[in-house]
Amino acid sequence: MVSGHIVKSFDDDLNHLVSTISEMAGLAERQLADSISAMSRRDEQLAANVIEQDKRLDDLEADIDAQVVRMLALRQPQALDLRAVLVALKISSDLERVGDYAKNVAKRTLTLMQAPVIGQATSTIVRMGSIVGGMISNVVDAYLNADVVKAQEVRARDLDVDQLHSSLFRELLTYMMEDPRNITACTHLLFIAKNIERIGDHVTNIAENVHFLVAGENIAGDRPKNDLSSSTIITVGDKTA
Amino acid sequence: MVSGHIVKSFDDDLNHLVSTISEMAGLAERQLADSISAMSRRDEQLAANVIEQDKRLDDLEADIDAQVVRMLALRQPQALDLRAVLVALKISSDLERVGDYAKNVAKRTLTLMQAPVIGQATSTIVRMGSIVGGMISNVVDAYLNADVVKAQEVRARDLDVDQLHSSLFRELLTYMMEDPRNITACTHLLFIAKNIERIGDHVTNIAENVHFLVAGENIAGDRPKNDLSSSTIITVGDKTA
Lengths: 241, 241
Fold this sequence. Notes:
Two copies of one chain form a homodimer. By secondary structure, the first copy, chain A, is mainly α. Chain A has helices spanning 2-41, 44-75, 79-112, 119-144, 148-178, 183-215. The mean pLDDT of chain A is 93.
């Protein structure tokens, strides 16, 4: 029963790997939610917690790296098993980046506390954050249940995030033009919004990797894109924003 | 000579993998240099070329992914060989991101052509770009020659990039406050500068992976950081910038 034993061990290893990914995703989702709560409630302590907790995501990524190296060296997985191991490696790298962006939101939150409140913009960012948080939660479900339909839904949802980001970009430029005292705060809000939009892109990467893992081929069609912020121009007196 | 044949084949595979990485790095470096030339010379055609060429980096990354899967499945590398294969996978993912950032610089360059020129800021960005371009070239040398000292130098160099980015951030906020007609252009320049600073971070990742590959352990000490832009506040009438 030696070969049965080896197969069983690979499954144990894979279960452990998947559960570490799941733990990482839960933590990344919480870091994002906390960073946004901290921003909207101007909660200094919560922002400081997010900054401090990021190290746990780095440690979990290092743990996954070590698990992957061990599994490749000892189990020499083939075909679907090999794909599962390599996809776990990619997903953990995307989740680590999600954590980095949440940490940057928290850092800028500490800075924003010294600047005037830009009310409406904050509530749009809260909405973007809650969509992206839902995407993280859904992509983990898709991963755990090998659900390609759900993975595709997550990818499609990123369009809403891009759209909110584009309109917020215009809005923030307008606030800056209205009153130069808003410029510092709006600049940090621009980067906070960009961070959340980037988190959406990383979650979309994960959705595409889940599709690849389950279907054995890349998801069909180019990634839908709806972020127009890179080409946005607002001129003084512009009423179109 | 079966086992000799297998060993020889692994070396051939690895040489091909390393040469694909080297090709990718050369292309990424050129994409960065071209995106910055396009910005400083307001060269629309060159910016359009950069946007179009990015697909080649995506294709090279997919090629490296396929090479890695094939090597893991057929050669079942161990120890240093396994590390070399996994490090190649990570480096190619960082180089693909470098390309994405260069593409975004090119996109924003097309937008900037419709806005007023912000002279001094452009020349600081050119300087940042030339440092980061040199870092890409040096990190590839470090990789090809297993040179940990050079890898460490690249990592240290990123401090200069962070410092230029922090001071440019302050400078751009000041220009925005001086004249609201500068706001759109300065905002895109802020993101261009951030893109180049992020490219520096990805090159630093590569330097750390080269160190890990050669030395078999992570580089000692936390990554030096010198980017203060997330905590920068400028108020109207501030003369400290």
